[in-house]
Specification:
The chain has 297 residues and is of the alpha/beta class. The protein has 12 helices and 7 strands. A hairpin with a 2-residue loop joins strand 2 and strand 3. The protein binds 3'-phosphate-adenosine-5'-phosphate sulfate.
Amino acid sequence: MAEIVPVAEDPFLCQYKGFTFVKDAFTPEDIDLLEKFEVRGSDIFQVAYPKSGTIWMQQIVSLICNENYRNGSENTTNAVRSPWIESNFSNQDYSKRPSPRLFTSHLPYYLVPKSLRNKRGKVIYVARNPKDVMASFYHFEHMITLAQESPDFEHFLKKYLAGHVFAGTWFDHVCGWYSNREDFNFLFITYEELILDLRSAVIKICQFLGKQLDDHELEKVVEQSTFKSMKVDPKTNAMPEDFFKKDKENFFRKGTIGDWKNIMTVAQSEMIDKIYQEKMGDLPIKFVFDIPRENQA
Ligand SMILES: Nc1ncnc2c1ncn2[C@@H]1O[C@H](COP(=O)(O)OS(=O)(=O)O)[C@@H](OP(=O)(O)O)[C@H]1O
């Protein structure tokens, strides 16, 4: 077994196999076992760096695959319909789940099951522009029990850029997955695509999954995946009460593009632009950092 390395700056975190975990929310044994996890050809994995639209994709994919909840899954939470592969919080026997099994993960590409890396099953990777991720992450840190709150955004930014937050740096996660996408049956989609045209994004996801929805079904999926619907749907924000120290209802906080401007200074934003250029310069990915004029109300 590899070594567990504490993160000096944050007692809630540790590193294992090069990835930053929340100490009390994982075990090294579970991570090691994943290498041999038996992936079915019909399995669908939704993967995202934290605060990038993970729960949103859980909702969309489970609505698509569960025929708008008509098979009884409306009575269960997103976290049960599409459990985390790295932490079995809902205590399910994954080998007994009917196909198609849905899974969710925040893991880097190199820690997911080996056969997934050999193109068995499908991966939908959702990525969000790093500035909005940072803003969302900063607020989230203040809501949950398993995180050390930063006194201000500047402090958070330093910690964040050093990778001393859950899941390490956004840059490593996104670059890692994107650069290794050829190893997977892979759909890369951005949070901003979902925001700007949810209906087209749902169609794109359906095409990737080989699912055909009629117009009515499509509208239902879209309607139940809007920010407004999800904020009041008790099955979406299914994290346990004790996970939150405050503002559980604000997990669905703003759900928009460009909120980073409310928290970042110009200097901080320019510094991130520079790092972005250095780390992402060669990758053909484009993120939207502002709501385009034509989409503004
Ligand atoms: N339907 C819908 N539409 C628009 N935005 C949405 C939606 N659902 C979730 N969200 C926003 O996604 C952010 C949370 O990301 P994650 O689900 O990845 O968080 S987590 O890592 O699983 O805790 C968080 O972003 P912020 O609002 O910027 O904090 C959520 O509000």
